[in-house]
Hints:
- The chain is α/β, with parallel strands linked by helices and 237 residues long.
- The protein has 8 helices and 7 strands; from the N terminus they run ββαβααβααβααβαβ.
- The strands form 2 sheets. Strands 3-4-2-5-6 form a 5-stranded parallel sheet, with helices on both faces. A two-stranded antiparallel sheet has the order 1-7.
Amino acid sequence: MLCYDLPVPSHAHRGRFITFEGLDGCGKSTQLEKLAAVLRVQNLPVVATREPGGTPTGDKIRQLLLDSSTSALAPLAELALMFASRTQHIREVIEPALAEGQIVLCDRFTDSTEAYQGGGRKLGHEPVLALHRILCGGLWPELTILMDSDVAKSVDRARRRNQSKAGKSNRAKTDENRFEQESRAFFGRVRNAYLAIAAREAGRVVVVDARGTPDETHRRIVEVVRRKLKLKAAVSS
């Protein structure tokens, strides 16, 4: 594990906002938690959260968005619900944590909406960015880690994960299969949209090859974060 020589941010300083992006099944949640653990070892204040969701209201919207029974949801309705969840998330979780000087690690943010609804649903990036400007107050992460992975393998992993969840409970809230039921062409458009975002936002988005082992991917991410946030590597083990 890498450790860092970095003072704990005081409330007089704004926190740091880092997001994780990528296809379903690429390992985002695992890598976010591994990074959070590295930072917490150094007593750095970390908030780990996710989208859609992150608040009681957002979790209800998440259930609606991801439930396979809502397959007929119109793309623009889906877009609006994503931003409804995000707006509440910013208000309740992200902005208060940043104001207190905490490091916010978020699994998905507006880049996901541009990739999935803009690219996958073919809505384009303009409506996504317009809603972001109106509803998110210009808030962007200072670093976005885009975990690039093989489309077929990632989606297959996500489908197996959600089937396993469904097998453990009969409750509808465990059904998060709606996006995983999309075609390979859909996810190909999502990946292409992600890569287009990375090319356009090269100063913010760093593409990390996530095709290796989780430990290999973790080491790559830690190095990216160390360089971006100017952390000093103190110990490696």
